[in-house]
Amino acid sequence: MATGAQEKQYPPSLLNFFVYNPKFGPKEGEEEKKILFYHPNEVEKNEKIRNVGLCEAIIQFTRTFCPTKPAKSLHTQKNRQFFCEPEENFWMVMVVRNPMIEKNNKDGKPVVEYQEEEILDSVYSSVLQQCYNMYKLFNGTFARTMEAGGVDLLKQRLEKFFYRYLQTLHLQSCDLLDIFSGISFFPLDKMTYLKIQSFVNRMEESLNLVKYTAFLYNDQLIWSGLEQDDMRILYKYLTTSLFPRHSEPELAGRDSPMRLEMAGNLLHYGRFLTGPSNLKDPEAKFRFPKIFVNTENTDEELHLIVYKAMSAAVCFMINTSVELTREFCEQLDSLVGPQLTLLASDICEQYSINRRISGPEKEPQFKFIYFNHMNLAEKSTIHMRKTASVSLTSIHPELMKILGDINSDFSRVDDDEEIIVKAMTDYWIVGKKSDQRELYVILNQKNANLIEVNEEVKKLCATQFNNIFFLD
Fold this sequence. Notes:
single chain, 472 residues, six-stranded antiparallel β-sheet, five-stranded antiparallel β-sheet, globular
């Protein structure tokens, strides 16, 4: 993008992405057999082999210094390479071109400057790990695929998945939230939460095929029966891919409690987000996406049914050994639709009451990101919107980078600590790590001193996190 007549800025971009296994082509002349997937595919065969060989050599070389922890990344002037071994001998590599500024020199000729320090290893290493996690959610582990159909089947699945998935990677939008990959929880009063728990229990009993259930409202999680790590990646898929694809302008007043009498007459707003788009269509297909959970232990394969009414969405996961028929989907629709519509209205009404009680929100003098490693809870007032394709933040990218640097410092030590930074733009940035929780605060008070900044952060903890213990 152009920032002036003389200067053009280019964000980081994906150059290469490949998956290989060094055990598959150990002999000379068989190097191509190691490559399981390579993007972009148009690259000449010898260049693919050369690039994979270079990564292999770097990883082997770094093993001599630390056999258990080989290289995670390689920094060069023009790009950054990231390495990940998600399963034994299976390596994933992502090569990212560094951001660039193109200027004209005295003679009017363009000169490119690479901004080598603008990319954070922790952010893009997390993005690479997410690529594997998302693949595993829909295809299971590499080892499982090898058992099912050998190298050819694995190549097919990698090609089919990553051909589409890599198009959704917008590297310029990646930031601290990609490191956390947390879950935003919807705040609820006890009575409404009990109603939801009761609804989930009733549905699981009535639809006795259901193995796991997850309940979301407004793209925020309320209830989940899945293990945390499985829910974390499913949540990412739902909120950055599935829900945005099906978002539609909600009708005015659709979540309004005024429509309760309609819901009581079994009129409802329920619809399937996966599977049949229209139950009345005689040609409707009753195929649902399959997901893999508990891959470390029992390795379960499940149908994923996502059903939505207004702003409430419920995910039902059913064993793939069961065939899902039209009758089952009609039963689910007639049972879940009216109750979910009522529940969505209840949640909306309760949320509106709570908002009225707390009063109008003033523009605060601070913005923050909070993350809890124990329950993966994440909250950000910095991000106005965060999807796979866009990250709308209300602060300058330079401040986001400082947050990432503070996080990198935190990850190097296990102790609780606090870091305070004053940016060139006169913003104060505070990072607090305490008892598995991390809090990052940005204050716009250029004339404040350290003592005043510390007081402001204490006030924030008292108002926003009054029931959370932060060590002082």
